Every structure is written in structure tokens, then in C-alpha cells.
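The instructor's notes for this session suggest beginning with a concrete chain rather than abstract definitions. Hand out the sequence below and ask the class to guess, before any prediction is shown, which regions might be ordered.
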Amino acid sequence: MTLSPTPNAILVLPHLRVQNANAISSPLTHGFPAITQFVGLMWALERKLVQAGVPLHLHGVGVICHHHQEQVAQGYVRTFNLTRNPVSKDGSTAAIVEEGRIHLDVTLIFSVSERRIAGSIPMLVSDGTDAMQAWAQKTGEVLASMRVAGGSVLPTRPVRRRRVRPWMAVLSEKSQEQDQQFRQWRRQWLPGFALVGRDDLLTNRLTEMRKRQLDVTLLDAWLHAARFNHEPLPPKADKKTPTNDKVRWGDPLRGAGSGWTVPIPVGYASLSERHAAGTVRNARDASTPLRFVESIYSFGEWVGPHRLAHLDQLLWHAEFDEAQGVYRCRNNYNPEPTQTEIPVANDDWDADDSYD
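After discussion, reveal the predicted structure:
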């Protein structure tokens, strides 16, 4: 069995309806499953496909969210809607286990290559439409029996003028033609938002904060970017100083056009050496080496698929640094030069945002 080093096709599972997925992505964030859960789903799905006789190797995964409904009580302070467990054996009230649940409508895009025996005829070609459609349909059937971020997959209802069945397509070998293919595909994923990585925004915020305070750490910059920050803004250069004692308030590091940015976990960092399989008591899997880890945090952004220019900007890949013990997910999203700069606060501030 041989594996292609680079993907030469995409596998699309459109509009998956997921019920009660895990909304707590890390000890510090919630609101959407972590990207590590989708990368883990990709690995689990590949193993299931091998058992089902589908010769596909999955390289990367892209996530596009069309709709989400987090199970929380609305208000200034949001709390999870929890369920009461059945009573215990002695009839006493069982403890409530806090869990975050969310309903999702997502599209998953995988970059794939074919697993084939040396000397066999490749099936993943432009004229192999029948074989690819059979593989895509089988993949949808396999995924229907799996968990997506801890949630159950519901049957997809047919929708007029919407492609809801799994499908595959071969990528062109020329980069320009491949970009043209992507521009046609991305229209099918609207309306929706794709999650991409924005490590550059966190670096820029750290640089700006160190201009005011030199001992600011990267964690301070992440916490600062993860919350709402309001401070008095200087008067506009083209206008006179107001005489009614009103002061404009806003966030100078997140102004108009800064995008829908969110704090996200992107992987894990090791806290210990790797222990041999079966040497740690009460481990969930006694046949796999174990390592204690903690979450790695970064910044992400939800962008419309129509704003992406290449397929690589959408996909997430896993990487491992053995020397530092880092397991994390990477995304090749490269924004335009204007998006990497710290935006200026909105000058068109409404009167309702001014305070006496």
C-alpha cells in the first residue's frame, strides 16, 4: 500500500447537522468545539474508512459553520442549560455534572489522496466520477455512525437548490486552475463562516501593548484580546474639542474592520515525559503511550468563504515538535497586508457610545 505525499482531491461533507456537540473547547474558552476535535475526527474517520474498504488518506480538514445554537440561558451572564441526572441507588439526588452543549450545522472539507497498491491503476482521477461518488457516499454513511465533537449526527434533510450530499472532486495540478476551482466551490458554502488561524493578530497585539508596558507577556496579550476593552479615545484630528464634556470611548486595538476574531485552543504542550503504554495507572488506554499535557491557546477568525483565495487558507493540519513536546494544529491563512495591522479605532462613533 502506497500513500501520496500530497493531496490531489477534496472530500466535502456539506451541511452536517450535529446535535449536542461539546461547546466547552478548553478550560478558558467555550462557544464552539476546538479545532483539535475536528482533526481528531479526521483521524478516526480515516481509520473507519480503511475498515470499510474506502482507500482514502485524509491530510487536512476545513470547518465552515452555517448555523449554531449554544444551549445557554441568555442574559448578561450566560449559564449552560444543564440536565438533571437520575437519582442514585439509595434514592438521593445525583450531582449535576456541568456540560456545555451546542447544536451545529457545519460543512467539513478534507484534502485527500488515494491509498493504492504499487502498480495498480489509480482511481482518483478526473474521469473516475463514479468511483469517487461511491467513496463519498460511503464516507457519509460511515460518519453518520460516528460522533462529531461529541455530538450525534442527524440525517440531513434535502433542501432545494442546496448540495447536501457528500461529494468529491480532483484538484488540478496547476495552481491557477486549482484556485479557479476553489472560487467555484466556495460559493456552495455560503452563507457560512470558516474558522482560520490568526497567530499574527496575537503577535501584533503583544507588540502594541509592550509600547505601553515592557513586562507584558504573551498570555497578557491573549487575555487582553479575549475581552472587551474600552478606554477614552483622543479627539478627532479634523474636529474641534467638544465643549459638552463628552468623551469618546472605544478599543484602540480593535476598531472598525478588525474582523470577527475569537480566542481558540489550537493544541497541547507536554507537561511530562512520554510514559510507556500500561505504566500509568487508571489510564483510558493501556496500549498507547501517555503524556500529560496542557492546552495551547492562540487566536482565530471567522471569515466568509468568499474571502478565501486558496484551498490551503481553509485547511487545518496537525504538527508535532518532539523537541519541545508541542502538539498543535496549523492553518495557512495569509491575510491581506492591511489585515495584519492593528486597525485604527472607528472615527464614525455614534453618539450612543459617548458618555458624560
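Then share the key points. Helices lie at 35-52, 129-144, 175-185, 199-210, 218-225. The first strand starts at residue 2 and ends at 3.
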